């Protein structure tokens, strides 16, 4: 026997019935995006490595440690499996001059890849929903993107405040961050003996990320560090205040977290995260913010932008934790075909039912003909179907099919095969 091949660690198969939960989540997301006027965008999984180095920041964890990068054996190009979605979307809108006619609202759903230690809710191949608003500079757009994510929680049955809570911050503009950076480095240098190896490595490359450390021993140092919000100018503060006022008006509770910085270098002004206490250390479910400089940074004409992304695996774990996953999808009816019944005519009847919107599952006949009635009824019951459609030779000769309720009691009845339009939709409505 040949050796059995298995999936790569951290890259998981999604099989029924769990795949139905993914479809439900994707359908919910698409319905939400339609309500807010977003259009779907699909960009390649493989991009030039330089896109992420330039876009995310050379000293970010993603670029330094986590990217799946390789050299194209045909032409020597340096390529990377996308670790996130925003950079690829910006590359696409630049390449196709997509903002020529004005701002856009775009969303995507798809796999991302990061080479890291797999753990629950955090995998090497993971799936992300992303929303990007390009070409609009006002704080109203920041607020609307946050409100749209809050609407998604409502659509999924999650409670804001109990299941997920909102944290926001402002990173200001580049010149304000530079002033804060200098003060932060000076402060951290005065406490260098208390820093761990990771913090020392970041001290002169990306000190802002030290504020996001999970090391309990550094919490006192971080709490005493200069706060970025104290370095913001009048315009940045006004932008942040306008976002908060919009959230207040909509009744969305939030906490200003001055240590919230996000993991990519491209953010400015508003940043936010939706976090949960129900998944242990993997608490961030959705995050995003404004990235006004990225379009120009990646070769396009200067234009503002804001967006967010959420990890689907982590969100599905949260939904399971709070009991909000949908019930398994089951057929409306199960066709039980008895020996001696002409199968072509049965198939034609089932197709007529499906054209009426009825989902029907057929137990295929084997090489020796249909399985025993007992076996078929057992499978009908296991399928979850509300009804069994019993095609027997006697009934069929009279132009009838027997409809047998499987769940809610009731008497078996006969229906005319010639009038599927009359009785077929009732199966779906009852289900």
Automatic annotation (TrEMBL):
Name of protein: Histidine--tRNA ligase
Localization: Cytoplasm
InterPro entries linked: aa-tRNA-synth_II, aa-tRNA-synth_II/BPL/LPL, Anticodon-bd, Anticodon-bd_dom_sf, His-tRNA-ligase, HisRS-like_core, HisRS/HisZ
Domain Aminoacyl-transfer RNA synthetases class-II family profile stretches: 25-342
GO process terms (BP): histidyl-tRNA aminoacylation
Residues binding L-histidine, per UniProt: 84-86, 114, 128, 132, 262, 266-267
Family according to the record: Belongs to the class-II aminoacyl-tRNA synthetase family.
Protein biosynthesis among keywords: yes
Keyword line: Aminoacyl-tRNA synthetase, ATP-binding, Cytoplasm, Ligase, Nucleotide-binding, Protein biosynthesis
Quaternary structure and partners: Homodimer.
Organism: Aquabacterium soli
EC number assigned by the record: 6.1.1.21
Aminoacyl-tRNA synthetase among keywords: yes
HAMAP family: His_tRNA_synth
GO CC terms, sorted: cytoplasm
MF terms (GO), sorted A to Z: ATP binding; histidine-tRNA ligase activity
Pfam families named among the record's database cross-references: HGTP_anticodon, tRNA-synt_His
Chemical reaction(s) catalysed: tRNA(His) + L-histidine + ATP = L-histidyl-tRNA(His) + AMP + diphosphate + H(+)
């Amino acid at each position: 026997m040949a050796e059995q091949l298995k999936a790569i660690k951290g890259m998981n198969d999604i099989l029924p019935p769990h795949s139905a939960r993914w479809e439900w989540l994707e359908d919910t997301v698409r319905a939400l995006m339609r309500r807010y006027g977003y259009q779907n965008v699909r960009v390649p999984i493989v991009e030039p490595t330089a896109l992420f180095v330039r876009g995310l920041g050379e000293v970010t964890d993603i670029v330094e440690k986590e990217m799946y990068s390789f050299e194209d054996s045909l032409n020597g190009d340096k390529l990377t499996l996308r670790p996130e979605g925003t950079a690829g979307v910006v590359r696409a809108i630049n390449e196709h001059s997509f903002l020529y006619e004005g701002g856009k609202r775009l969303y995507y759903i798809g796999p991302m890849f990061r080479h890291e230690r797999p753990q629950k809710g955090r995998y090497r191949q993971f799936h992300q929903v992303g929303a990007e608003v390009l070409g609009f500079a006002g704080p109203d757009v920041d607020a609307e993107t946050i409100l749209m994510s809050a609407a998604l929680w409502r659509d999924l049955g999650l409670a804001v405040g109990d299941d997920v809570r909102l944290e926001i911050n402002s990173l200001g503009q580049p010149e304000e961050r530079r002033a804060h950076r200098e003060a932060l480095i000076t402060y951290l240098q005065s406490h260098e003996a208390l820093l761990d190896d990771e913090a020392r490595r970041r001290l002169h490359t990306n000190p802002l990320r030290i504020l996001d450390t999970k090391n309990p021993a550094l919490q006192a140092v971080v709490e005493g560090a200069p706060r970025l919000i104290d370095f913001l100018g009048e315009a940045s503060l006004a932008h942040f205040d306008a976002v908060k006022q919009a959230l207040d008006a909509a009744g969305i509770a939030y906490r200003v977290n001055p240590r919230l910085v996000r993991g990519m270098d491209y953010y400015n002004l508003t940043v936010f995260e939706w976090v949960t206490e129900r998944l242990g250390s993997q608490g961030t479910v959705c995050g995003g913010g404004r990235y006004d400089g990225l379009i120009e940074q990646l070769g396009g004409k200067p234009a503002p932008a804001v967006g967010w992304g959420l990890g689907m695996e982590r969100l599905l774990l949260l939904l399971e934790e709070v009991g909000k996953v949908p019930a398994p999808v089951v057929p409306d009816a199960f066709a039980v075909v008895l020996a001696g019944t002409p199968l072509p005519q049965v198939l034609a009847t089932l197709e007529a039912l499906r054209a009426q919107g009825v989902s029907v599952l057929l137990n295929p006949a084997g090489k020796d003909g249909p399985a025993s009635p007992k076996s078929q009824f057992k499978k009908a019951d296991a399928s979850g179907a509300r009804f069994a459609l019993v095609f027997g030779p006697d009934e069929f000769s009279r132009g009838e099919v027997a409809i047998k309720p499987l769940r809610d009691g009731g008497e078996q009845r006969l229906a005319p095969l010639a009038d599927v339009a009359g009785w077929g939709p009732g199966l779906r409505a009852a289900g």
